[in-house]
Queue: 3 jobs
Job 1
Amino acid sequence: MKIGLYFGTYNPIHVGHLIIANHMAEFADLDQIWMVVTPHNPLKKKATLLDDQQRLQMVFLATEDYPKIKPSDIEFKLPQPSYTVITLAHLQEKYPNHEFSLIMGEDNLKTLHKWRNYEVILENHNIYVYPRISDEPENIELKSHPKIHVIDAPIVEISSTFIRNSIKEGKNIQPLLPSKVWEYIDHNNFYKK
């Protein structure tokens, strides 16, 4: 089974994340998308970062109607800070019959050369890249790598930061969130302070 791993803090998960995950599930040659909730770094406690389980619950609520998209808490069980290369090795060991690929925005591809053991990732895993609007210069060398697949996905310019700030300001941003996620945030008064 070919699994696309889509990492994020998902603080909160929004419709942009779902548009990209669903596009990858339907139009890339992947069988499932696992939305990997990244735990927070204990050394960088952010007041705006919800607890790991609360963010996982939001991903669960957002994806339960999408059979090809699954929430994953795999990094909760691994040593911190999380390094993608270690997560991939752990998953490959745990699920030897699965083929794992990464899903990332074009902005992340531009800094991939700074990731720990990025050469090992590129050697062993495909990377599916979705477009982002960015001022950063392109990494042409990496973009032409045989393991890099640029997918013609919709450009979605919604950010979790914008959503958190808007909730804090009392704005109605319901259309930017899956309805069950909006209800969960509203019920628990998240991001209001």
Note: Strands lie at 2-8, 32-37, 69-72, 99-105, 127-130, 148-150.
Job 2
Amino acid sequence: MRFNKQLVLPSWIFVCFGIGLLFWSPTMLAQQDPGLSMFQLNAINQNPANSGLRGASFAQLHYRNQWTQYEASVEGPGNLGTQLLSVSLPFSKLNLGVGLLVMSDKTPSGVGQNSMKIQLAYHYTVGEAILSVGLRGGLQGKSFDGRAYRIRDENDPIASQLSGKVISQNQFDLGLGMLYSKDNWQIGFSADHLTSPTFTMDTPQGNMPINLVAALHGSAEIALSENLAAMPFAQVRYYSGNILPEAGSRFGYKDLFWIGGSFRLNDAAIGMAGLSLLQQRLDIGYSLDVSMVQAAVKAPLTHEIFVRFQLPSFQSNGIKGLPVRTPRFKIL
């Protein structure tokens, strides 16, 4: 982190933004896409326009175990788990960034989804800021393991046809994003599933579309002293006619470690911490969700961890193994 610059955008804007999000949504329903508590620390998953931004070059493994030790009476065994691989490569002399996302998400009911998408971002300098636009496309898949699924309704024709079978389908999917950023703050918008991929699961009655998911997000870095910084963040997601807001902040000490917390409306309170090792080439983060709503019908705790490896910077004239500014405890 660099704490020698003061925040250009007034900090009260981010405070109001975060407070506004907390009072926006009246309900919280199930998400189509798996959400991350440390969404602000997996920036290229949050918005394709972040790919390669400001020389970000890394590979990141992110794992979320939701409602740990959850056991349902009408579903199979196991937890709700999400695994995500993110890769960001900059091509700064072309003002481009390339990203790769590989995601797998499983549920105890035998229903899962996976995706593999390539991202391309263009970064255009506007005065002291950068305006970035990004596009991602690839395969979005759904799977169903009828061996794990327990039929609730014996008269359900789809469940009967799929019982005991393992079926998977893949469809083309498209997403986009825009981002306006300065050295110590950014605000962006992203939209996924623009093609509304629809899955039949090989049944005449099947018709399971994935509808539009959109997000507005912002973050900043505010120097509190020479060695300390506050990093507030917030986002609001839209899916299936519902709005899910969350906001929080991290507090970092030099480039060594950080702690923080956030709150997801009508869902959970979240604590998080992280550290940087090997001269800031290896970053590790952990978060713990504590369910605040309907905790009696689900396990109360959710665990999340990521490991990020800084990579050499790929430039248009070859590979340079030089240290680059990367998203450690910064807003990226």
Note: The radius of gyration is 20 Å.
Job 3
Amino acid sequence: MNIGLYFGTFNPIHIGHLIIANHMVEHSDLDEVWFVVSPHNPFKEKKSLLDNHHRLTLVKLAIEDYPKLKVTDIEFKLSQPSYTINTLVHIAEKFPNHQFSLIMGEDNLSGFHKWKNYEQILQNYFIYIYPRIKLTDENSELIINHPHIKLIDAPIIQISATSIRNWIKNKKNVTPLLPLKVWNYIDEMNFYKK
């Protein structure tokens, strides 16, 4: 199976994540998309994150009705902070019969050269890129033409988890942006309200 790995803190998961993941699995050669819930992104501060098990639960709730979408907590068991290359090597060893690829937004290409062992990732894995509104730069242009980069014509989604957290804190209605089960869990647990 060809599995697309969609990394993120998903703090919280929202409809934008689901639209991208579903589009990738329905409009590319990927058989499944696995949400890789990251305990700590090296480029983000940890203090704003919900506990790992809560974010994992939110993703499970969000994808219940999508049989081609899965979730994994594989990064919870790896040393912190999480680096994509370490996860890729570990998951390939654990599931030797699957082929793994990365899914990332086009806006991440400009900083991709800063990722740990990014050359090894490019050499050994395909990267499925979905469009984001971005500023084109030299680094993006160099990487985007690599033979392992696959540009997928997916919808441009301008929804951010940061905005959703702020809107919840400011008592704005965010229900259109979240799967209903995700919103119900957030509301019941009083997440992001302070």
Note: The two ends are 43 Å apart (CA to CA).
